[in-house]
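INFO  loader      accepted 1 record
INFO  loader      residues=260
INFO  predictor   begin
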Amino acid sequence: MADILESSVKYVPGVGEARARLLEKELGVFTVGDLLRQYPFRYIDRTKIYPIDRIDESMASSLVQFRARVTGVAYAGEGRRQRFSAFVSDATGSAELTWFHGIKWIEKSIEVGREYIVFGRPSFYRGQLSMIHPELEMVEKALSRTARSGMQGIYPSTEKIASTLGTKGFYRIMCNAWALAKERITDRRGIAGDVYVIKIAGAACDAGLSLEEVVRITEKARDNISTIGLATAPGTHPVTGELTFELPDDAIEYGMGLHG
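INFO  predictor   done
INFO  writer      dumping tokens
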């Protein structure tokens, strides 16, 4: 593939034909480059695990995770209105997890008596914690996996993408897409990430490391830093005093460049 950024998104590990059609229809993502232009609107700390009794209604707009054991399952409704529930608990409390879609897959992946890391948006009914379509991962797998980072990006999504991939699944696909684009590293421009690379290189020199080790550490920092510029007001030319671009009061602009 001459230019990976122009290649079909189906070539990203974890995507394939079916998910590629979903990304095309829901987000207008056709190529690897299109996917990489989907920017996270915020980040969450996936290293933080709450006891159930520490999750309250003030967190209803947030994504949280807790560790709990499945104590039972139940079905309600029929046909398209059927729902599947799993009841979980830890030493501090209990919660109900509910799915309306993908029931056949979910019921096969849940084992009563096993512990899971539960991730999703909390809601409360009569003081009882519940989650709709949460993501589950067996505790053994979660603890044995070496995370790339404790911070996970949350990307723009739709109901169909959320129910098919989940926030974690979409994030993994984004990580895979960035890995494919590594060959384009020489195209990257020097922007805000330079500050961290230079600081890290200087600290390595101050520590008295060899030149080879300084180069290794600096290149590792460079290869693992991505930044993006954000403007809330236009820049001003330092000589003429003229605005370098126009930006309405109710808009922001983001991209790779600086100073407009």
